[in-house]
Amino acid sequence: MAKIKTVYVCGACGYEAPRWAGRCPGCGAWNTLEETVASEPQKSSAGKIAANQRPGTGADALLIRDIPEDTSLRASTGISELDRVLGGGIVEGGLMLIGGDPGIGKSTLLLQVCDQLAKSGQRVLYVSGEESARQIRLRARRLGVESEIYVLSENALDAIEEKIRTLQPDTAVIDSIQTVYRPEMASAPGSVSQIRESTSLIMRLCKETGTSMFLVGHVTKDGAIAGPRMLEHMVDVVLYFEGDRQQDYRLLRAVKNRFGSVNELGVFRMTGTGMQVVENPSEELLSHRAKGASGSVVFCGMEGSRPLLCDVQALTSPTFYGTPRRAVNGADGGRVALLLAVLEKRANQRTYNQDVYINVAGGLELSEPAADLALCAAVASSLKDKPVGPEVAIMGEVGLAGEVRTVPQCERRISECARLGFTTLVVPRTNAGRIRAPEGVRIIGVDTVAQALSVLF
Predict the structure, then answer these.
(1) DSSP letter (8 states) at residue 189
(2) What is the rounded radius of gyration, in angstroms, for the C-alpha atoms of the chain?
């Protein structure tokens, strides 16, 4: 009996090692090497590689100018926020991976997408390796899905491939990639080798048949999609569902998109009948704002092409310890520490003996430097215990010298603020000099943080 050959594969980068080690030689991650059975190509009785295992697609090389352009290859999902994140819709033959915490709404959203696509006349196949067909039917009834959707409860990839080639759907969903497996491989479903080989076969199937596919991916405790990191490199689009399961709002972001921008954000609300699109997220995020309270400032950020207003909150209190506490939610902690130092040095705002707490309401993550001035104003408002006017919105990047720098797409931000009724906008002076204020809106240009605080208070 032939001895089974095993190798150790890194779950983070896919590096293969002949023996176990505490640290991966490829990426340097600790405790990521997992034992798996080494796979070998199938061979026929004559010792040659079987026909169905031969590499390549048989395609001819073409000059790039001779490749026909077709703008109709992108199909709408029927859900506006998902189309926005995808860059306009589903691309024919595209392979899309969507990940998120358990219970966040991945399967719910995809079943609604299948419903909309089927209503538009597409042939749709929903493959589940986790639920039976009866369970899917119960969920579809709760969501009000009654269109013609083909459902397959299967996790053997060979059977799934055969059904896709026979049915020839326009769009297919596989829920999830961690549950499917190739029977000829000895490793268990969800292992590094199974995920890698299964995704490779599915990718080839998409390109050969023109079927667009959604893959659902489980996530680890760190929030990354489970399996080798190369999984995200193999697919065309990687989407992440974010949000607190105790809250109604869900945020859909693209971290990779070969067919569009990765800066777009989709906002949904989870209800008893499925995911509902939030048409005006700025108004929703500010609907519960405590007006007249110190430490609360409105900031207009950009998520891709969409201006989004949010409530930036700060709370300061005298510390009773030798080192003051800094707690940040929704912003970068290192950036906040830098801004506190600028306030101390350049604006004479004493925070060395204050605990500082920062929160961005609504579960948003502020990553752009344009939020600097709003964060500084919120901290100063809490320190002085003086509220910023409810009609005021603030934006601007702050440098180490205390200067307020230009922010991009300022005109679109100002238009969104004016639409929602904000009449006083504090912006960098370089932006204010180039923008014509909308009717009824006063734009105040500032050069430094100290100047901005003197205007506000």
Answers:
(1) T
(2) 26
- Beta pairing, strands 6-10 & 16-17: antiparallel
Residue-wise pLDDT for 272-281, tens only, equals 889 999 988 8
- pLDDT tens digit sequence for 387-405: 999 999 999 999 999 999 9
Using alpha carbons, select from 241, 253, 251, 234 the residue that is nearest to residue 216: 241
Does the N-terminal peptide bond of residue 282 adopt cis geometry, omega within 30 degrees of 0?
Answer: no
- Report pTM: 0.78
How many CB atoms are closer than 10 A to CB 101? Answer: 17
**Phi and psi angles of residue 440, each rounded to the nearest 5 degrees, phi first:** 85, 5
**Beta pairing, strands 306-318 & 354-360:** antiparallel
Confirm if 213 and 96 have CB atoms less than 8 A apart: yes
Contact 101, 108 (CB under 8 A): no
Give, in degrees to the nearest 5, the angle at Cα 446 between 440 and 452. Answer: 95
45-62 pLDDT, tens digit each: 444 444 455 556 567 788
- What burial letters (b/e) apply to 286-295, b meaning 16+ CB within 10 Å? beebeeeebb
